[in-house]
Structures are given as C-alpha cells and as structure tokens.
C-alpha cells in the first residue's frame, strides 16, 4: 500500500478569492481526494505547519511526496529541503506539480534554473501522450484537454527528461514538455505541468489518473543500498 | 497475473553433451522453472515446433516473451519475426537473453549489428548494479558474481540503452553493459547478458530474480492505442 | 570539408504540377543549393538512377547523406538500403527529412513503424527550440514559423530521441517532436520534420540553417573501429 | 579559437611529496600543457588566488573551464560556485576531472550526492570506448590503459549520463562509468574519471587526447538565448 504525503504551500487559496472559490479547502485537499479515489493512503502537509509538516516522522511514513508551491518558495527552510532531498536520493518518490517548478527542492534536484515562459489567459491546453506504453499513460486517451489553463512555454530549463510522457499544445502558439520523468539517486521524480490555482484542474478525471499513475510509478523499489567510500572488495 | 512465454532454440542442449548435462530438459525449462518460483504463469515454445511455437494464439496469451537462441538464428522464419515484432510494438514485453543478441528479432528492434566480443574460458563475471532504484534491481545485492561465464565485451553495437541497470566486469579485462532497457512502440525490451548453455546460470538465484523483475517491469501497460494516418482532430 | 550527398525520390515534382511549380528542378536541387550556400560540397542522387545513384563509389565520397522520399519507398532496392545501413553503422551521417520517416532506411535504423498522424491543409507550424545549446540550434531564434505546412502529429512511433532539439506546434491542435537526434553504430542520424513538396520550405533560411547545422553535427568522427567476435585480449 | 581556463585546487601538490614529485608545477600546469599541445589557448586559475582566480573577467574569456579539486572543496566560496553555475547555464563548457566529482559545482549541477567507491592501490585501469562514433572518442584506440590508478567503483551516484563514452575496468574487480556527458542549460559538461595526483596520468597521450576532444565538444554554441517569464507571443 503506497503512502502519499501531499504537500501544499496553502497560501494563495486563503489569500485570493478566485483561488479560494475553486479550492476552498486548499489544493492539497483536492489532490489528496483524487489519490484517495485511486486507493492510495494519503496525508497532507502545508507550509505553515511546524517544519512545514515534513518532520522525519512524517517522511518515515511517506513513499511518495507531491509538491505544489506558488510564490512562497523562499519561505521553505533549507533544512527541510535538504531532508526531502536526502529522502529522494534514498528512494522516496517525488511529484512536482505546476508552479512547483520553481521550488527549492526541484531546482536542487535538477541543477538548473527551471525557468519557463508563462501566460495567464485561461487558454485551451491539449496534452498529447508521446509514450503510450509508459505506466503513467495507463488508462488515458491519446490526448486530452484542460479547457482553461495557464500557459507554460518552452524553453523549459531543465535537464532533458529521461522519459518524456506528455507534450502540451497551447491555443496561443506554444508547446511544453509537460510530463517529465527523472531518476535521482534511488528515487524517481515526475514533473507534471497542469494545475493552476484558479482552475479546477485537480478535480479533472484525466489529471487525477495521471497523478495516481505517477504515484504508482514513483513508489520506492527495494533495491540495494550502495556502499560508498574507501572500499576493499 | 503476468503470462510469460519462454522461447528457446533448443538445439545445443540436444546436440552437445556439455550443454545437455547442465540443461537436460533444455534452457527453456530452467528459465520457466525460475519464473514459476516467482509466481508467473509460464509456457514454453521452441524452434522445432510448428511456427516455432509462436502462433497467434500463443502470442494472444503472452504478456512477456523471453528469447534464448544460439546459432540457429537464421532458421527462425521471417514471418514469425514480423509477428513478434508487431506484438512488441503493440505492448508485449520482450526479454532477450545472452546469445539472443544476434537473434533476428533483437536486430530488427535495435536497427544495428548487435555485435560484440566474446571469449569462452569459464571466467569470473561480476555484475554491478548501476541503478539501484530501478525495479529490475529489486531484492539484489549491489553486486553479484557468475562464477563461470562466457565473456562478452564492449563495444556492444546497440543503440545506447534508455536505462542501463547492470555493468559487468570480467576477470580477463573487459566490461559490458549487461542489463539494457529499451522502449519500442508501446512495448518494453530488456537485454540481459548472462546465460551461457554450459554453465548453470539460469539456476542461480540472483539471475532468476533479475528475470522475474524484468518480466514484471516489461509487462504491458493499458495505455492509449494511438491513431495514425490522415487526421482531422 | 564535409561532403554531402542529397538523395531524392524525384517523382512527385515531375508528376504533380503543384510540386513541380515549387521545385521545378526537384527538391534535391533546393536542398543542395541551401547546403552549397553554407559551404558544403554537395552532389545529388535520385531513385531512377542506376543503383538509385548510391553506388559504393558515391558513398565512398559521402560524409553525410540526406534522404527525401514520398510514396516510392518500396521502390528502393533492399540491397541499396543494406549498403546505406552499413555505411551509417560505419560512421556516415544521415539526415532523414519529412516524409522520409517512412523510408526503408529510417525504419531499418529505428526498428519501429515510424508512423504518425498527418493533415494537408497548409496550416501554420511553429518550431520551438527545446535545446538552445545544441549545435543544430546554432544561429536560430528561439522559435520560427513555417507559414504553410503539412501537419505531422504525435504519436510519432520512433524510439525516444537521444536528444530532442525541436518541438513543433500546429495551428490545428497537434504537437510533434520535429528534430530528433540518434546514434546508430558509429553514425549519427537526425530526423527533421518540415519539408512538404508543395511548399517552398527548403528555400526558407531557418530551414537551410538547420540542415547545414545538422550536416556539420552528423559528420563522421575519426573514432576507433571496434573489434568484434572471438577475442583474447 | 576555443579558450580554456584550467582550474586547480593546487594544495596537494604543494603539501605532499609524492604528488609534488609527479606534478612539481601543479596538476593545472600539466593539464594546460596537454591542451596547449592540442592547439587550445589556455590560462590557469587556482584556489588561493583572489576569487579563486575565477573573476567575471576571467570567465568572460573562458569558453571551457576544467575543474580539478581534491579535499578543499568546501574552501570554494559559494559566490564563485554560483558564478560558474550561471556561466554553464549560459553555455560555457565544463570538464570535471577525477576527484572533482565531490566539488560544489559538480554537485550543484548534478543534484545528487556524486558519491562513489574508491581504493588507492595503484592498480591497473582499462578504459573501454563504448561510443566509438562520439567526438570525445576521436583518435583513440578502442581501449587504453592507465597503468597505475586510484580505483573508483559503482554505484556512482549521478543522474544517468546523457551519453556514456567510456566504461572503466579495474584490476580489483570494479567497473565505473568513466566518461559521462551532460547538458545543463545551454552548457555542456563532461565528467572524466582518471587523474589521481600521485600518478602521471595527465602526461599520458590518450588522456590528453580525451581532454582535448572534450574541450572541443563542450565549447559554446551560438544558439538562441531563451526568453523567460510573462510571455505574450
């Protein structure tokens, strides 16, 4: 039974009426509900909790962590970032969502600026599956739409994904590598683009399916723990 | 329940005493026994059966096919190769084992010569796990040995693996990319190096574990079936 | 001095008025002119020449081969395909252009169906550079447009490119991995999407720049010629 | 004309007799001599210089930076690391050598621990070229030996290289991915394993050839400078 901790900054939904209206109980609650539907055991954690809710105890009970942040990335303590980083290298899965591209933990794991273009006009996004045999594409149609989306456009300044699962098309003329798989240490990492706070994207069934598939895919594997340092075989 | 068909040329074990001694019931039986132990549903098929045992009916009941061949690669009918090829593109998993590197189906899927160096001196091979978080490495130590192996050495003329799971070290001075993951169409393919006919490699527990992990990893995913051709969205 | 052979089927421009009007001297001539401008030494070869113009002598004088074909792919002799295939594995560069995705040589090197969606409505294509530091992106803006294009849409059934340089956006709602780098044997291969016979795409400066960059990138490297077979180090 | 800055910690050669004997003028001098031989314009910089010799002015004149450090990684100022990091993302090439695997800049770009096994017994290393068509393999034999080497063994905790050029074999039973290519931002990065301070590795002709090839490969490309942020196309 894969255990998921859903992390959220949880500020914009409390501070802005348009986000509060869409996610009155916070984006984390909508994400956790979607994962519950798919049979995962979930808990949530948010920025304002002590240690941002990501204590060693909580992480001990976490197989996969999902991360949504918006404009308080700098408020996340470096100590907690390092703690999460170590867990990922030890095998914990990580899903980085939408504006989480600028989170400290994502930049820490990517080694790049993670910058991109954006435009907030509620335009149509169509996601195309480019790897139909990938576990994260299970149960999906070959393309699906997000009717109103914040646009993210290339160049997305990340290392080339080890596997690219989705490519997005935007009404206004941009494309984006929207579903990017990485391995860091023994852990797996999936970046998934959709998820703006003023659209009900995390209630959409295809989006929930992607998140559930990605959690399953990113769950830890019982592989060898490597030895490091001075070595006499 | 993942269903595996274990394919074997099944000539060398009947024709050569040293192979017969190690695999009196054929290599396919030893491989199937190992997969049975790990809970898979297995059947076998061999070169001399009609259609090499790989009829449409058999393939309808196959989630993952394993392929062992030695020096009768040319005796495999092109029609059967094309049939297997289509199945892989449609999502069937494929494990290509040891001297199967020169099989028609592997060369067909790789697009290269698949050539390599070899030496048959029963030397020590040590396999190092280079991706400890990969599902195919589950339950393994960080390295393990095959006490007597036929050496395969680089340059291995294949496209760079999408993921490299094992790197082999040989007593005589060579290395080899021994566990190579690929995706072709909707199917997944794993090449695994060890497995010579005169050593009991397919009875070794680590080898059996790798094969079981690889079968699990290569099993088909219920992803979208892409549309091709003239398209009006 | 990199020597390029520009291969063309050269039927559609002779048989159809709309293609003849755009490329009265054939697509090969337009491609070769563009490469001449960029300082390469070029020659051309076409389907109807003996051995399709790709004799051993011609290939001896070829560092990089470009391939444009449309609907006579089956008319290319297997023997010539095998000859070109061997040259690629030995280090010759190969550029496969537009409808060349269905050529025998491309399918031979990819190992997949190479299928895709298409639509011929003269719609707008915008190509985004996703790897601005790649040599094939030198001298380009971060995006550029083909005003009238035949659409190609995902799923493009090829192995995931080792490097993806361009992502295309189409007016009608599709995306496509338009610039795909591969290595096969000692040779390098670049697939480039734009190039329909009824639009003057091969006269467009950005397209000519891409082709010139790609030729430079795919030129042979004086690397080691691997030994294969029975080996005693 | 590619301009190279060769950076060295330059402590161990001053503090330890065995290193001083091999590199009386410092490892940087030996590396720079090798690059001079191959026609590059070189300058050197070391830890104890102001700003470690890596001022904005020096970096303005640097196309490719090479990095050798040993046990003073923590003495490198974070500000200089960030400066180098930005330059790499903007297109400067970076060669990270041997014990530089634990440098701040390499860890910053990889996002992982960069840990490994090591053993200092002067054992034989044999490097195998696994990608004979890669520019970094130009002019090399298919394998070459370092007669006395410090062993580095897998698991090497880095993201899987985008291209693996060399695989090392060690007398004592280990393998290592010794030549690893990455792209970060618009910059290219090559990690090359050999290079211990008590062996004359940087005077060996094959090693010098690899470094020269890698400098050439990593040199900046005149690609587009992406726009980021709020975007209206």
Characterise the protein shown here.
Four copies of one chain form a homotetramer. The first copy, chain A, has 233 residues and is an alpha/beta fold. Chain A has a domain of 151 residues: 3-Layer(aba) Sandwich (Rossmann fold). Chain A has seven helices and ten strands. In chain A, strands 2-1-3-4-9-8-7-5-6 form a nine-stranded mixed sheet. In chain A, α5 crosses α6. The first copy, chain A, is globular and about 60 Å long. At the A-D interface, α6, β5, β8 and β10 of A face α6, β5, β8 and β10 of D. β10 of chain B pairs parallel with β5 of chain C, so a sheet runs across the interface.
Write a concise keyword list for the protein shown above.
homotetramer; 233 residues; alpha/beta; 7 helices; 10 strands; 25% helix; 31% strand
| Largest interface pair | A-D, 35 and 35 residues
**Tally of separate helices of chain A:** 7
Largest sheet of chain A: 9 strands, mixed
CATH architecture of the domain at 3-111 and 177-218 in chain A: 3-Layer(aba) Sandwich
Whole-number average pLDDT of chain A? 98
- Say what oligomer this is: homotetramer
Please bin the fraction of helical residues of chain A.
25-40%
CATH topology of the domain at 3-111 and 177-218 in chain A: Rossmann fold
What would you report as the Rg of chain A, rounded to the nearest angstrom?
17 Å
Query: How many beta-strand runs of chain A?
Result: 10
Structural class of chain A: alpha/beta
SSE succession of chain A: EHHHEHEHEHEEEEEHE
């Amino acid at each position: 039974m894969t255990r998921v901790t859903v992390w959220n900054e949880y500020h914009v939904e409390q501070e802005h009426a348009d986000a509060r209206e869409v996610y009155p109980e916070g984006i984390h609650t909508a994400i956790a509900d979607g994962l519950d539907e798919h049979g995962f055991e979930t808990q949530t954690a948010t920025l304002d909790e002590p240690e941002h809710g990501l204590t060693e105890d909580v992480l001990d009970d976490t197989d996969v962590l999902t991360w949504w942040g918006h404009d308080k990335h700098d408020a996340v303590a470096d100590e907690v970032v390092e703690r999460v980083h170590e867990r990922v290298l030890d095998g914990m899965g990580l899903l980085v969502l939408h504006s989480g591209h600028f989170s400290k933990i994502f930049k820490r794991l990517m080694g790049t600026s993670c910058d991109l273009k954006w435009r907030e006009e509620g335009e149509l996004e169509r996601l195309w599956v480019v790897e139909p045999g990938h576990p994260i594409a299970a149960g999906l149609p070959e393309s699906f739409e997000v009717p109103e989306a914040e646009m993210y456009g290339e160049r997305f300044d990340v290392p080339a994904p080890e596997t690219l699962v989705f490519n997005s098309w935007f009404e206004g003329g941009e494309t984006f590598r929207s579903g990017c798989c990485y391995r860091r240490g023994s852990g797996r990492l999936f970046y998934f683009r959709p998820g703006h706070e003023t659209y009900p994207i995390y209630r959409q069934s295809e989006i929930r399916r992607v998140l559930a598939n990605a959690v399953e895919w990113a769950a830890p594997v019982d592989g060898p723990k490597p030895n490091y340092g001075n070595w006499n075989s």
